[in-house]
Specification:
Layout lengths: L1 H20 L1 E3 L5 E3 L25 H12 L11 H4 L46 H5 L1 H4 L8 H10 L1 H10 L7 H12 L8 H6 L8 H11 L20 E2 L28 E2 L21 H10 L18 H12 L16
Antiparallel strand pairs: 1-2, 3-4
Helix pairs in contact: 2-7, 2-8, 10-12, 11-12
Length: 351
C-alpha cells in the first residue's frame, strides 16, 4: 500500500513537472499551457467577423465590392485599382518596401495587408480611419494614390448598366454614391480572413498541426523574459491595435515620419505606428511601416538588438538576448500563422 502511494505521488509529480515544462507565463501573468486544444489557448481563437449595423454581409454586397476592388477604371488614369497595391498574389499587399501610387511615384509607407483588417478597431498605419467603410474611398481620393476624380467615378458607375444592376441587388433603393461604394468594398474586404493556419488548428486540438520547433517558438513569443512579442501582438488577431515607436533607423533621419503623432499630438506617439497582425506575416514581406526588414529573421534581429534609434522608443522595445535557436524557433512559429494557399476566383467586370 505504501509502495503504491509512493508510485502515485511520483507519477503526480512527474505530470506536474511535465505540465510546468510545457507552460509559459505571459506578460499578463496568465499561464499558457503549450498543449494542443488546451483551455488556456482559447483566447487565441478568432471570433466571427464583425460588421457594422446597416452593412450586413450578403453575397450581392461582397460580389459588388469585389468588382469595385479590382476595377482599375475607378482611378484617375484608369490603370490602377485597390488590388494594384493589395494583390492576393502578395498576401493582399504588394511585395514592395513602400507603396507606389499614381504614375508610379514611390510613397513613404509600406502597403499593409488586407488580411483580417475586419478585426481592426482603427485603420491605416497612423489610425486616421475608424472603419473599413471610412477607409475604403481614401486611396481613390488621394492624389498620390489612385487620384480619382470622384465626380467622374460616380458618373461612370451610374452610367454603367452592369454596375447599376449590381448596386440595385446589393443596396436596393440606395443611390450609387460614396456611401454604397464604401460599404461594398468594405464588405468584400471582410471576406479576406486568415483563420485556418497550423496555429489555429493546433489551438483547436490538432497536436500535429504545429512542429515542436513552432510550439517552442510560441513559448518564446509569449515569454516576457524572451521574445516579449505578445505585449503588442496580443490576442486572436495578434495585435493590440495600439501605436508604438519601434526604434527603426528611419526615425533617426531628418524630418522623420511622425506616424500617429500627426493624428494625436502626444509626445509618446512621435514615430509610433499601428501594430500590424502577425497573421500571414510569412507571406507579406517586407516588414515595418517603412519596409526596412526583408525577412522575418530581420524583424527578430531588430527586436533582439532593442531597435536602432532609442529616441522616443517604446518602453517594451529593449535588447532581448535571444539565442540563435530561439530566433529560429520564433521565425518558425510566425511561419505557422499562415493559411494554406488557395486559388482566388476573379470576377468579370461590367463592360
Amino acid at each position: 500500500m505504501k509502495y503504491r502511494t509512493v508510485v502515485a505521488a511520483l507519477a503526480a509529480f512527474s505530470a506536474f513537472a511535465a505540465a510546468a515544462a510545457d507552460a509559459v507565463v505571459d506578460h499578463n501573468g496568465q499561464t499558457v499551457v503549450l498543449e494542443a486544444g488546451h483551455a488556456s489557448l482559447q483566447g487565441w481563437k478568432l471570433p466571427a467577423v464583425p460588421y457594422p449595423e446597416g452593412n450586413e454581409p450578403t453575397p450581392a454586397r461582397v460580389e459588388l465590392g469585389k468588382k469595385l476592388f479590382f476595377d482599375p477604371r475607378l482611378s484617375g488614369d484608369g490603370n490602377m485599382s485597390c488590388a494594384s497595391c493589395h494583390n492576393p498574389l502578395f498576401g493582399w499587399s504588394d511585395g514592395l518596401p513602400t507603396a507606389k501610387g499614381s504614375k508610379s511615384q514611390v510613397l513613404g509607407r509600406a502597403t499593409p495587408t488586407v488580411y483580417n483588417t475586419a478585426y481592426n478597431s482603427l485603420q491605416m498605419w497612423d489610425g486616421r480611419k475608424r472603419s473599413l467603410e471610412d477607409q475604403a474611398l481614401g486611396p481613390m481620393e488621394a492624389n498620390v494614390e489612385m487620384n480619382a476624380d470622384m465626380k467622374k467615378l460616380f458618373a461612370f458607375l451610374n452610367g454603367n448598366a452592369g454596375y447599376r444592376e449590381a448596386f440595385a441587388a446589393a443596396y436596393p433603393g440606395q443611390e450609387i454614391g460614396a456611401e454604397t461604394v464604401a460599404k461594398a468594398i468594405a464588405s468584400f474586404e471582410r471576406t479576406v480572413v486568415s483563420a485556418d493556419s497550423p496555429f489555429d488548428r493546433w489551438v483547436a486540438g490538432d497536436r500535429k498541426a504545429m512542429t515542436p520547433e513552432q510550439v517552442k517558438g510560441f513559448a518564446v513569443f509569449l515569454d516576457p523574459k524572451k521574445g516579449n512579442c505578445a505585449v503588442c501582438h496580443s490576442g486572436a488577431n495578434f495585435t493590440d491595435n495600439g501605436f508604438h515607436n519601434l526604434g527603426l533607423a528611419s526615425f533617426g533621419k531628418d524630418n522623420p515620419d511622425m506616424g500617429r503623432y500627426a493624428q494625436k499630438p502626444l509626445a509618446v506617439l512621435k514615430g509610433a505606428f499601428k501594430t500590424p497582425t502577425v497573421r500571414e506575416a510569412a507571406n507579406t514581406a517586407p516588414f515595418f511601416h517603412d519596409g526596412s526588414a526583408t525577412t522575418l529573421m530581420d524583424v527578430v534581429e531588430h527586436y533582439d538588438r532593442g531597435g536602432e534609434v532609442r529616441t522616443n522608443v517604446s518602453k517594451d522595445v529593449r535588447p532581448l538576448g535571444l539565442t540563435a535557436q530561439e530566433k529560429r524557433e520564433l521565425v518558425a512559429f510566425m511561419e505557422a500563422l499562415s493559411t494554406p494557399p488557395r486559388a482566388f476566383q476573379m470576377s468579370a467586370l461590367p463592360r
